[in-house]
Design goal:
With 533 residues, the protein is of the alpha/beta class. Helix content is 38%, strand content 19%. The protein contains 17 helices and 16 strands.
Length: 533
């Protein structure tokens, strides 16, 4: 591990609530923004950019309500732009809205690339310098801290370094407390960022920050290089959400700074082990799927599939893990597939609390696993089905009911807009009662699910807590057309956990049935409800 500065402290400026909401498919309500603010504050983020008070009623209301919240560490920042050409700073509606927001910090962006000054603003370079200076002079007389987001700075510096530096100096002369160099187009490479940041630090006497976008997939690396060159503040978003390809991902930047570069970058007694929870909290609030391959915080970040890898990490986790997963609130996972070896299987059984007994039994289960995967089963996302399979082979499985049969009926007439689906199920409960039930659903699988629950819930009331979270069908080979085999993956959950089950068959209904039954039986085994009967 290389430690660049064991005594350094980097300020983290989160712009999830503003820059992050510019991402495609992301929309946060006022309540969402307030909840995320509380979570980021509890995590130890220094600055939280709440939005643009002059742009829309929701952001204006956010700044009114945030004043009533008792935050522990975070400083709330309002965001806007330099004043409009032809309008004095004190008369500019945008700047006045920033002051009226009443935040202890304000960040404004301004042009530092002469190409934008000419073609976007349509003004002379000197006028842009006056706009920057006067905007900061007005804000500094009304706000405690003011930051300058130097928009398109790196492109501006590459094309006209002298003018880009003049823009920074105009902000400093106006009262800017921190100069944030922005790779707005996200196209710079780490070497460029390091070189230019170092040159700026030599040319301008002011604290320097970095704001990177991810269009070349270098936003995290660019942010770290800016810090290595001397920047003391980093802007980014949780999970890297943002416009186009996103912003610099704080879920990678923060652990890299603290665990690998020796900096402190969370306020107070903040705990880095909260990182994964923060990541998932934001995705849940934003109604986004969790990106499982995200470094540090993703489900796959410390997941191991290959038998040789698993064998090695059992001996020492650092053989295939760059940090201890617990440092960021994550955990090691062993995946099951046809690549698994005996070590993988044994480790997974231990995790599940299952004694596989003799080595010959493990060999038999391993061979069965590989045969099933060859048939199209996939246990990586269906560990509940795998656990039931092991219990059956080791004599630890208890039957929840005896299945006798089901019948499905789908009806549709030309006068009806939707079809009706009815499932009839017959089974025997553990007490010997034969149950014959029928239920409707908005599809054949939903009808089966409803009928199965109807039959079992009287005997197993806890099944009322189980809900279906996801249902996926994968055609295993398209060569046979509509007679191709399919794999059905179902994700279910209750108030405390989630689990995945799988079914495979040439018949999508039968595959769905196997996955549904596994889901129900796993719940009963998990809560030891069968043992209690």
């Amino acid at each position: 591990m290389i430690v660049y500065n064991s005594m350094g402290f980097i300020e983290i400026y989160d712009t999830t609530l503003r820059d992050g909401t510019q991402a495609e498919d992301i929309s946060l309500t006022l309540e969402d923004k307030l909840l995320i603010t509380e979570r980021l504050d509890a995590f130890g983020i220094h600055f939280i950019e709440g939005g643009m008070p002059g742009s829309n009623p929701k952001d204006a209301e956010y700044f009114r309500q945030i004043k009533t919240m008792k935050l522990k560490t975070a400083v709330i920042a309002a965001f806007g732009s330099t004043h409009r050409p032809g309008v004095r700073a004190e008369d500019d509606n945008n700047l006045r809205a920033l002051v009226e927001a009443g935040t202890p910090c304000v960040t404004i962006f301004g042009k530092t690339w002469d190409f934008h000054v000419k073609h976007a603003l349509g003004i002379e370079n000197d006028e842009n310098l006056r706009i920057i200076h006067d905007s900061f002079k007005f804000l500094k007389s009304n706000v405690g801290r003011v930051f300058f987001d130097a928009e398109h700075f790196f492109q501006g510096y590459i094309n006209n370094p002298g003018y880009a530096i003049e823009c920074l100096k105009a902000a400093v002369d106006g009262g800017a407390d921190c100069l944030v160099l922005c790779d707005t187009n996200g196209g710079c490479l780490p070497e460029q960022i390091h070189k230019i940041t170092a040159e700026v630090i030599r040319a301008v006497v002011a604290p320097i920050g970095i704001h990177a976008h991810n269009d070349s997939d270098c936003a995290v690396a660019n942010s770290l290089e800016a810090v290595r060159a001397g920047a003391i503040a980093v802007q980014g978003t949780i999970n890297g959400i943002g416009e186009r390809c996103g912003n610099a991902n704080l879920c990678s930047i923060i652990p890299n700074l603290q665990l690998k570069m020796g900096y402190r970058c969370l306020a107070g007694s903040a705990d880095l082990t909260q990182l994964r929870d923060v990541s998932r909290y934001v995705t849940e609030i934003a109604n986004m799927p969790h990106f499982k391959r995200q470094p540090y915080v993703g489900d796959s970040a410390f997941a191991h599939k290959g038998g040789m890898h698993v064998s090695a990490i059992i001996k020492h986790s650092s053989t295939y893990e760059h940090i201890e997963p617990a440092l960021v609130g994550n955990s090691q996972r062993i995946l099951l597939s046809d690549l698994a070896g005996k070590s993988t299987l044994q480790r997974k059984a231990e995790e599940l609390g299952i004694d596989m007994g003799k080595k010959s039994k493990a060999k038999k289960i391993l061979d069965m696993l590989k045969d099933l995967e060859n048939q199209g089963y996939q246990f990586e996302g269906a560990e509940a089905s795998f656990e039931l399979m092991i219990k059956k082979e080791t004599g630890q499985y208890k039957k929840a009911f005896e299945f006798l049969g089901f019948q499905l009926m789908t009806q549709k007439s030309c006068s009806e807009s939707a079809s009706t689906n009815t499932a009839i199920i017959k089974l025997i409960l553990p007490d010997g009662e034969v149950v014959h039930t029928a239920a409707e659903g908005n599809g054949p699988v939903n009808a089966l699910d409803n009928a199965l629950r109807k039959a079992l819930e009287r005997y197993y009331p806890a099944l009322k807590d189980v809900s279906l979270h996801d249902y996926k069908v994968r055609v295993l080979s398209g060569g046979a057309g509509t007679s191709s085999g399919v794999r059905v993956l179902i994700e279910s959950g209750d108030h405390s956990s989630r689990w995945g089950t799988v079914g495979v068959s040439p018949n999508v209904i039968e595959a769905s049935w196997h996955a549904l039954v596994d889901s129900i039986e796993y719940k009963l085994h998990k809560d030891k409800l069968i043992d209690d009967k």
